[in-house]
From TrEMBL, chain A:
Residues 73-265 form the ABC transmembrane type-1 domain. The chain crosses the membrane at residues 12-34, 77-96, 108-132, 187-207, 213-236, 243-264. This is ABC transporter permease. It is found in: Cell membrane. GO terms for cellular component: plasma membrane. It comes from the Bacteria. The keyword Transmembrane applies. It is a multi-pass membrane protein. It comes from Paenibacillus selenitireducens. One of its GO terms (molecular function) is dipeptide transmembrane transporter activity. Keywords: Cell membrane, Membrane, Transmembrane, Transmembrane helix, Transport. Belongs to the binding-protein-dependent transport system permease family. Coiled coil: none annotated.
TrEMBL record, chain B:
GO terms for molecular function: ATP binding; ATP hydrolysis activity. Residues 9-254 form the ABC transporter domain. PROSITE patterns: ABC_TRANSPORTER_1 (PS00211), ABC_TRANSPORTER_2 (PS50893). InterPro entries: AAA+_ATPase, ABC_transporter-like_ATP-bd, ABC_transporter-like_CS, P-loop_NTPase. Pfam families: ABC_tran. This is Dipeptide/oligopeptide/nickel ABC transporter ATP-binding protein. The keyword Metal-binding does not apply. It comes from Paenibacillus selenitireducens. The keyword ATP-binding applies. Keywords: ATP-binding, Nucleotide-binding.
């Protein structure tokens, strides 16, 4: 494992993605300690362009958009992370059970997975969001998580199916180890790098999903996220007012975060894939 | 030999079918066998004849499509984990590919430590090391040279010998060796064969030796089963089968081996 991490540090794609993300996370975590103002406090007139005082100008309520952006990035990253963790755990459990046990369990779980894959998850996402009235950002994250696990499940199942007939698994079986122990020590380490990659992608798509449903006005309440900033800009007609600073920075942040995550994923893919194949 | 020709494992009409419909493959078809204690049995057949599939059914790693295996006078039951665990106390295996038999994330001594745990022995660290050293010296390996290493740091021959060290520690009643020498060099091959013979002599172990090499089978075994396309086409003592083959497939297998009658030079 240490060995893999050392090679990763030499991959420029992985490193660029990681450094950008780490700097961004550090900044949004530290900045609220420097500027302790409430992001919802009105500071100026509506749609003031950026100047030396308000770095990204003000929104339709005259609030400091830079401060809002910092809080928005925090929320969006949290939502993406929780959605990613949730999707990865569900996908991992379904994929491992289905791939390792085979037979009836496999057929049953594969059927469920396929149903979720056939119905576009975005539609399920909208339907669930509409039916839940008071959505906190945690609830939104969980809804995104439970609609996006099928791809992870399918990939994990495929890998597990090919691993379970390997001879080291057979040796573990005839050594009398329990099924849970075999899955944990004979299967999981072999798919770990793959699962981390899937997790990174799930996080990126979680951030995009949050932005999409928030723009439709179905995102979390009582919080600021990148999608909500875009939604406000849309609802209060910032583009008409020519206030590009109300939506371009938020869109750009989404692009930078997801692009960094994709870079990390590609970097890992280039390193781990030949190892998985061999 | 006659004193321990007690038959204790029978296969009756064992069949394994993979897939269904158009892709149906009958890998093993109505195989009968009788194994005796302390005997070395070779199952010989060309690639794809179903040897590994038969071995995995005997191991209880693949469920038979039909047929039964009788073990120690009773029909073998493997539904519950405890039943399987008890069965695997008696029956162990070495597989074809030593590289695939090791978990690449574990240090190699874990294989031997697991054997000690499996037997439920409560040992101090020194006692565990002594046991592992003993097992390694049985297969001519130095424990100190392997300790704290990962599988990729070992050669194929070293790995396969470690697998035999594992068998030495577990001393099962039956060992199924599925082409254990097909992936190692000629020198390791003869030492591995000698070790298997030694295991049989010291523990009265029954060894089921799977190979595609008739010459090797003749050298090592008491009884030979010839397998063609999933069926046993001929069985008998090594002399009967090799020196006066009856079935055309056996004759062809023997004809394909040059100079079968010369003694095997196993230095
Ligand atoms: N899991 C499986 N699913 C489908 N078909 C299988 C499976 N395992 C084996 N077979 C088929 O069963 C037949 C016998 O295979 P098996 O591995 O038992 O042959 P073998 O005698 O051990 O060959 P080799 O000497 O190459 O190891 C082959 O035709 C193979 O394609
Ligand atoms: Mg085989």
């Amino acid at each position: 494992m240490n060995h893999s991490i050392r090679i990763l540090l030499k991959s420029p794609k992985f490193m660029i993605g990681t450094i950008v993300l780490v700097l961004m996370i550090a900044f949004v975590l530290i900045y609220p300690f420097i500027n302790t103002k409430d992001p919802l406090e009105m500071m100026a007139l509506a749609f003031q362009p950026p100047d030396s005082n308000l770095l990204l100008g003000s929104d339709n309520f005259g609030r400091d958009l830079f401060l809002e952006l910092v809080y928005g990035i925090r929320t969006s990253m949290m939502v993406g992370l929780i959605a990613g963790v949730c999707a990865t755990i569900i996908g991992l459990i379904f994929g491992l059970a289905s791939g390792y046990m085979g037979g009836f369990v496999d057929n049953f779980l594969t059927a469920i997975t396929n149903i979720f894959i056939v119905i576009p998850s975005f539609i399920i996402l909208i339907l669930i969001s509409v039916s839940i009235d008071s959505r906190s950002s945690l609830v939104t994250a969980l809804i995104i998580g439970i609609t996006s696990w099928p791809w992870t499940a399918r990939a994990v199942r495929a890998q597990t199916t090919s691993l379970r007939n390997r001879d080291h698994v057979n040796i573990a079986k005839i050594s009398g180890h329990s099924t849970s122990r075999i899955i944990l020590s004979e299967i999981l380490p072999y798919i770990a790098s793959y699962v981390v990659m899937a997790f990174v992608l799930q996080t990126a798509s979680g951030i995009l999903s949050e932005a999409s449903i928030s723009m439709l006005g179905l995102g979390p309440y009582n919080t600021i996220s990148l999608g909500i900033l875009m939604n406000w800009a849309l609802v209060f007609e910032a583009p008409v007012a020519g206030a590009w600073w109300a939506f371009i920075p938020a869109a750009f942040s989404i692009a930078v975060i997801t692009f960094s995550l994709y870079l990390m994923n590609t970097g890992m893919d280039e390193i781990f894939n030949p190892k998985i194949r061999s | 030999m006659s004193s321990n020709r007690e038959s204790f494992m029978h296969g009756k009409q064992l069949t394994k079918v993979f897939g269904f419909g158009q892709q149906k493959v009958t890998a093993v078809q109505a195989v009968d066998f009788d194994f005796h204690r302390g005997e070395i049995i070779s199952i010989v057949g060309e690639s794809g004849s179903g040897k590994t599939t038969l071995a995995k059914m005997i191991m209880g790693l693949l469920k038979e499509s039909s047929g039964t295996i009788e073990y120690k006078g009773k029909t073998r039951q493997l539904k519950r984990h405890a039943e399987r665990k008890a069965y695997w106390k008696d029956i162990q295996a070495i597989f074809q590919d030593p590289f695939a038999s090791f978990n690449m994330f574990h240090k190699v001594e874990k294989l031997l430590l697991d054997c000690i745990k499996l037997q439920g022995l409560q040992l101090t660290k020194d006692e565990r090391f002594a046991k592992m050293k003993e097992a390694c010296s049985f297969v001519n390996l130095k424990f100190e040279e392997l300790y704290n290493k990962y599988p990729f740091e070992l050669s194929g021959g070293q790995m396969q010998r470690l697998m035999i060290a594992r068998i030495f520690m577990l001393h099962p009643k039956v060992l199924i060796a599925d082409e254990p020498t097909s992936m190692v060099d000629a020198c390791s091959r003869s030492t591995i064969l000698d070790m298997l013979l030694k295991l049989r002599d010291e523990n009265n172990m029954t060894i089921i030796f799977i190979t595609h090499d008739v010459g090797l089978a003749y050298y090592i075994s008491d009884t030979i089963y010839i397998m063609e396309k999933g069926k046993i086409v001929e069985r008998g003592t090594a002399e009967e089968v090799i020196l006066s083959p009856q079935h055309p497939y056996t004759k062809q297998l023997i004809a394909d081996v040059p100079k079968i009658h010369e003694a095997w030079n196993l230095g």
